[in-house]
Design brief:
Layout lengths: L2 H13 L2 H8 L3 H15 L4 E4 L2 E4 L1 H24 L7 E7 L3 H14 L4 E7 L2 H9 L5 E6 L4 H10 L2 E9 L2 E5 L12 H4 L4 E4 L22 E4 L2 H10 L3 E4 L5 H4 L3 E5 L6 E8 L6 H14 L1
Helix pairs in contact: 1-2, 1-4, 5-11
């Protein structure tokens, strides 16, 4: 095994196409294929399943890629530390539930460390995908929440994926609503107050379990449900449909606009919002800096 081979398989996995990967790596396609097959033979596994439709990462290949990304990340850190090899493109990726403070911190990090060449990814995505991204080092860090309802399941999923959770802060439940919603006139909102209005939630894909819901109290009955995939659509429904979503209450008017407001929800519950990292894996300087900025924006 060589670092070059690890770079090859990671690039193929990221592009999903042998021809495209070969172009990015400046290598002939037959040579790339032969190198990957040699690696597969060395370790007795199949990283990619090949068909006429293209390639697909196998389950054992997905696990191998997680280790490969860790090795490449550590090799890059050694080069940067001892060779001063900082001339390449700076890369950083965060996977997060839909929190404005996580985006704020990301923007601050980019302003501070963005060089002439960089590739930063901010993935506001489904809960299970956040866990999977960090477990396989597609993202350096993930941001999500725990509470008494989902904690047992989420912590088990994190342990199974070799991850740890660190709390940033505890939030009291709030609802996001449009500023012209009838609910906006109330200082505190009850569950009874919410009944006539549509409830907004984020789609969780194939892992659409209540335990992976981004919103607390997701098991409560609701006559009107609207499920969306992105923040902009959710906010449009909050305003246009007088809808609501249950959330942490942390809001940034510069990012979210002046038309969304937060009101406390009268329930006995909480959200422990924090970040996840691979257990026993030393975070990069960018990751450590992002955590510090998160703490500042979340306070």
């Amino acid at each position: 095994m060589t670092l070059k081979q690890l770079k090859y398989v990671v690039t193929v996995a990221d592009t999903g196409n042998i021809t495209e990967a070969a172009g990015k790596l400046f290598i002939a396609q037959p040579s790339l294929t032969a190198s990957i097959q040699e690696l597969e033979k060395e370790y007795g596994l199949t990283i990619f399943k090949r068909s006429k439709k293209g390639i697909k990462v196998t389950p054992e290949g997905d696990e191998f890629l997680g280790y490969a990304r860790q090795v490449l990340e550590q090799a890059n850190l050694i080069d940067a530390r001892y060779l001063g090899n900082n001339a390449g493109k700076l890369r950083f990726c965060v996977s997060s539930q839909h929190y404005s403070f996580a985006v704020e911190a990301f923007v601050e990090l980019l302003k501070k460390f963005g060089r002439d060449k960089y590739e930063f990814h901010m993935r506001e995505t489904q809960t299970y995908d956040i866990i999977d991204d960090v477990a396989h080092l597609r993202s350096e860090i993930g941001v999500l929440y725990l509470n008494r309802f989902n904690e047992t399941i989420i912590r088990k999923t994190l342990r199974d994926n070799g991850l740890v959770f660190e709390r940033l802060f505890r939030a009291e439940p709030h609802v996001f609503i449009g500023k012209n919603s009838p609910l906006a006139k109330k200082e505190i909102i009850s569950l009874e107050d919410l009944k006539p209005y549509p409830r907004l939630s984020y789609e969780q894909g194939s892992h659409n379990s209540f335990y992976f819901s981004e919103e607390i109290l997701s098991t409560l009955d609701c006559d009107k449900e609207l499920v969306v995939c992105d923040r902009a659509t959710l906010f449009n429904f909050l305003i246009g449909m007088n809808g609501y979503t249950v959330c942490s209450g942390v809001i940034n008017k510069e990012l979210n606009g002046p038309n969304i407001v937060a009101r406390p929800l009268d329930v006995d519950d909480y959200m422990d919002i924090g970040y996840i990292l691979p257990a026993g894996f030393h975070p990069s300087n960018l990751t450590q800096e992002y955590i510090e900025i998160l703490k500042r924006f979340a306070s």
